[in-house]
Structures are given as C-alpha cells and as structure tokens.
C-alpha cells in the first residue's frame, strides 16, 4: 500500500469522528496532526498531502517546526551565547527555535477566535545553506485542523543526567543535558499539552542510518532547484549534530506509539521509503 493512502484514510476517519463531537459540544479547539520521523523520511510531502486532502472539507493549515527557527542573525547570536555546546552551533536541535513566536502561534490557533495567525516561513537555502526566515503568511481563524511536522516531535525528555549518561552516548553527552532541558518546553507546549487533541503520524526507519542518505537526497535537490545549499560534506556534519538525539529518544518514540492523544499511526519505511509495516493505535 502507498503510505500516503494509509495516512489519508487514518486522518479521514479520526478527523470526521472529532468533528462529529462539535454538534454535541464536545470539541474544544482544532484537531492537531503531528507528523514526525527522521530527516528526509517524507514528513513535508505527507503534511502537504494531508492539508490538500482535508482542505476539501475543513478549514486547515500546516507548518513545520523548522519554520520557527531563529532568524540567521539571532541563530548566530544564540550559538555565540553557548560556544562550548557543539550541538547548538547552527539550526536544528531543540532550543534553536523562536520560542516566543512558536508559543504565540500555538496559543492563537488553540483559542480559535475569529481573525488570523501569522505563520513564519523558513528558507534553508539562504545564507549558503545556513538558512534564514523568509517572511510570514496569514492564515484565517478559527481552524478545524492544524498540521505540524518536525523531526523531534514526540521525543520524551530524560528526567535526569543519570538517564542521559546511561545511554553511553559516543558524542554530545554533556551538551545533551542542555538540549534535553530545552526539549521539555516543546513537549509541554505541543504533544504533551493536555489542551491539545491530536493525531500522531510516525515514520519508523528500518535503519536510523537511512537519515544520512535521505538528507543528502534532500540537499542535492535543493542545490539543483535553488542553486545553493549545503555540500555533501556539510550535510554529513549537519546530521552528525542530530545523532545524539536519535540515539537518546528515537527508539522510545517508536515503541511508545503515543504521539497523538487521540490516535497514532506508525509507518515503517525502508531506505527506498517503501512500506514494511503499519501500526495503528487508538488511545481515546
């Protein structure tokens, strides 16, 4: 089965059920759809397909957690603030986003009042591949559904330094303490927020090392279409900064099957992004 077909069947079913509750006064705020998986696994493509599909019936908008990265100027300042933390030298990990902007947008969407929300756009090809914010887009409110995709959505922060050390990280052990603390905020605002009713869509790689090849493919397309972006060597170093997070959180995310507070769909993908397993877990 085409993974997109399964995803659309999943969101169709649960979105319809959620919207039915409106008539009985049981629905509060829009339904969030969280899409997560390793870089290059197909999150952006899938999120766009969901938005295009559901827009025929519902008021819907989508974004990536990447859209909320700090501006290039602010990222440079942020990196200099923590010069000894190698994981925060450039965009990517928890803590390198505009937290104030992210919070304001999520809270505005949740309130569901008439008006609009301004969602940021981020262009990864700018600044020689370092990336920068490229503007904003207005989205009318209230929404029925909001789709958010991101590579670390659903990761569960460790509770202590001992837990982090127990994973025997080959790199980033000390630096991960700060990243882990940053992750707590994202969890509490998004997938761990009791005010948000959500569906979760998780891409499970048969081998997490696939992320290197997937990310290379993405960047080569970017260089071909926009004429700028990271070199293959820069992509390798870029993904290396993410590796401690994958080692620390990714396996637990896959095993838990609880990204969505309503239901979670897990799709297993091989290197060619072909489906090898499907797991559908309803929580409510």
From TrEMBL:
UniProt protein name: BN860_07250g1_1
Highest taxon listed in the record's lineage: Eukaryota
Gene source species: Zygosaccharomyces bailii (strain CLIB 213 / ATCC 58445 / CBS 680 / BCRC 21525 / NBRC 1098 / NCYC 1416 / NRRL Y-2227)
Gene3D superfamilies for the chain: P-loop containing nucleotide triphosphate hydrolases
């Amino acid at each position: 089965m085409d993974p997109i077909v399964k995803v659309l069947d999943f969101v169709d079913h649960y979105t319809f059920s959620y919207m039915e509750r409106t008539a009985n006064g049981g629905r509060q705020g829009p339904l969030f759809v969280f899409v997560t998986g390793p870089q290059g696994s197909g999150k952006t493509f899938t999120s766009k397909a969901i938005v295009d599909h559901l827009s025929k019936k519902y008021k819907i908008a989508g974004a990536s957690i990447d859209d909320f990265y700090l501006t290039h100027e602010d990222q440079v300042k942020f990196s200099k603030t923590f010069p000894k933390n190698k994981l925060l030298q450039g965009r990517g990990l928890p803590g390198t986003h505009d937290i104030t902007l992210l919070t304001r947008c999520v809270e505005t969407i949740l309130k569901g009042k008439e008006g609009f929300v301004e969602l940021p756009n981020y262009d990864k090809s700018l600044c020689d591949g370092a990336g920068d914010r490229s503007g904003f887009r207005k989205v009318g409110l209230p929404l029925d559904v909001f789709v958010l995709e991101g590579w670390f959505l659903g990761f569960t922060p460790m509770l202590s330094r001992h837990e982090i050390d127990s994973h025997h990280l080959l790199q980033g052990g000390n630096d991960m303490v700060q990243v882990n603390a940053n992750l707590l905020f994202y969890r509490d605002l998004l997938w761990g927020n009791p005010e948000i009713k959500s569906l979760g869509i998780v891409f499970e790689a048969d081998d997490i090392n696939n992320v290197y090849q997937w990310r290379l493919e993405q960047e080569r397309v970017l260089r071909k279409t926009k004429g700028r972006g990271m070199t293959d060597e820069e992509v390798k170093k870029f993904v290396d900064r993410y590796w401690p997070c994958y080692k620390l959180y990714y396996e637990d995310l896959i095993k838990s099957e609880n990204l969505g507070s309503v239901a979670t769909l897990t799709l297993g993908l091989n290197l060619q992004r072909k489906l090898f397993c499907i797991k559908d877990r309803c929580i409510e």
